[in-house]
UniProtKB/TrEMBL annotation:
This is Centrosomal protein 85. One of its GO terms (cellular component) is centrosome. The lineage of its organism: Eukaryota, Metazoa, Chordata, Craniata, Vertebrata. InterPro entries: Cep85/Cep85L (IPR040210).
Length: 131
């Protein structure tokens, strides 16, 4: 269930980031309010990406039988962006880096989904044998 939700959020994140990138490529300058909203949207997407990475780590740790990282489990984040870093988030390089991060997370979620599916199939097979 987490994997499906993660996948949906990642796809929405990618779609919104692509729309944001296309909006930035237009030759017309954005009105101040639109630019502010675009920057706020991007900040929220970056936060969402960080949360998804945390959830991925927690699920992976639990799948390996380990105790989860409590700071991740409680949603405690140590990363805060400075004003300059926030400005860089909307630069082409900043967007490209975030896109790479999202694609990597997408791959990791798919790998996790496969591992969970394999484990479920193994458990079902073991159940059939014991019955």
């Amino acid at each position: 269930e987490f994997s499906v939700q993660n996948q949906d959020l990642i796809e929405k994140n990618l779609t919104l980031q692509e729309r944001l990138r296309q909006a930035e490529l237009t030759t017309q300058p954005l009105p101040t309010e639109t630019a502010r909203l675009a920057q706020e949207l991007h900040s929220e997407l970056a936060s969402c990406l960080q949360d998804l990475q945390s959830v991925y780590s927690i699920v992976t740790q639990r799948a390996q039988g380990k105790d989860p990282n409590l700071s991740l489990l409680l949603g405690i984040h140590s990363v805060q962006y400075s004003a300059k870093e926030k400005d860089n988030l909307l630069s082409p390089d900043g967007l490209a880096k975030k896109l790479v991060d999202v694609k990597q997370l997408h791959k990791e979620v798919e790998d996790l989904r496969t591992a969970i599916s394999d484990r479920y199939a193994q458990d079902m097979g073991d159940n059939c044998i014991t019955q």
